[in-house]
Write a structure and sequence with these properties.
Layout lengths: L3 E6 L2 E6 L10 H16 L4 E6 L5 E3 L20 H11 L4 E5 L2 E3 L1 H8 L2 E4 L5 E2 L2 H4 L5 H11 L1 H10 L5 H6 L5 E2 L2 H16 L3 H15 L6 H15 L2 H11 L10
Parallel strand pairs: 2-3, 3-5, 4-6, 5-7, 6-8, 7-9
Antiparallel strand pairs: 1-2
Helix pairs in contact: 1-2, 2-3, 5-6
Bound molecules: (2S)-sulfonatepropionyl-CoA.
The site of (2S)-sulfonatepropionyl-CoA has 19 residues, from α4.
Length: about 260
């Protein structure tokens, strides 16, 4: 059974997560299916892409597949990691991508939702950033992404507490463009997408790329980059990182030693 469903109608593409049993985790299999679907939809004159879960979902996506996180010694969010790959693909897609969010959003799935250009949620759209809960050193582009969208203070709170941000708080902090009643979510999203399809795709594509380039234009000296990589390595080499993964797999609360 396909773990995503794909549809193209009136220049609006839709990718629907269809792995509710495993809470739509962003496994390498799901990411591979998404990348293939995006390529196919682009050939069909798609002007807007909507990414969503099945109607009635309690979880939009539970984030990175923890079973696929590497054991200590390897960067869990390197450039070629499947999650990082799909984030780049969405951010550089020359058309608007709308995250239609019903259900809770966890870890890397928050970055996926925020990598989309517009986020439309409902009462169940909570967002939880989980690196500190699992002992993962989040990556530089991901952290910059959160800082740009919600500001430093809220980003710090999300990363430090690893607690869910409610839909109302998410809307208030700029993680959601719109917060609508769940019964109106689908119609509201597709109406907005339809408006976009009537505008110039060339102008929209260039404006999206200009914003991406400006938002990521943060000069970092080689020494600073190497310092960041060194700091991140102390985390993914740590006992805490191993404990975070082991605790998740054993379905127990992790006990972090700070080593
Ligand atoms: O035990 P079975 O085989 O039935 O599978 C269970 C879960 O193990 C599985 N599952 C996952 N498997 C791998 N990776 C995941 N992230 C993941 N999440 C869930 O799905 C089956 C049903 O899960 P269950 O029974 O817990 O469902 P629930 O409805 O009671 O609870 C739904 C959630 C989402 C609240 C719960 O599954 C949960 O807290 N999942 C973990 C969310 C999370 O911590 N995600 C972050 C992953 S790490 C990541 O994204 C980045 C590396 S980072 O941390 O840096 O942001």
């Amino acid at each position: 059974m396909a773990i995503i469903n794909t549809q193209l109608q009136d220049n609006i593409g839709t990718i629907t997560f269809n792995n509710p049993e495993h809470r739509n985790i962003l496994s390498s299999e799901l990411v591979s299916e998404m990348l293939q679907a995006i390529g196919a939809l682009q050939k069909g004159k798609m002007r807007v892409l909507i990414i969503r879960a099945l109607k009635g979902s309690k979880v939009w996506s539970a984030g990175h597949d923890v079973h696929e996180l590497p054991m200590p010694g390897r960067d869990p969010l390197s450039y070629n990691d499947p999650l990082v790959t799909i984030l780049r693909s969405i951010q550089s897609l020359p058309i608007p991508v709308i995250a239609m969010i019903e259900g809770s959003v966890w870890g890397g799935a928050c970055d996926l939702a925020l990598s989309c250009d517009i986020q439309i949620g409902c009462q169940s759209s909570a967002f939880c950033m989980t690196p500190a809960k699992i002992g993962v050193p989040y990556n530089v582009s991901g952290i910059l992404h959160f800082m740009n969208i919600m500001g430093v203070n809220v980003a710090k709170e999300m990363f430090f507490t690893a607690e869910p941000l409610s839909a109302e708080r998410a809307y208030h902090c700029g993680l959601l463009n719109h917060l609508v009643d769940v019964e109106q979510l689908e119609e509201f999203t597709y109406t907005l997408a339809s408006k976009i399809t009537r505008n110039s795709p060339l102008s929209i594509g260039v404006i999206k790329e200009q914003i991406r380039l400006l938002a990521s234009a943060h000069p970092m000296s080689p020494v600073t980059f190497e310092r960041v990589q060194g700091l991140r390595r102390t985390v993914y080499d740590s006992k805490d990182y191993a404990e975070g993964i082991q605790a998740f797999l054993e379905k127990r609360t992790p006990v972090f030693s700070g080593e």
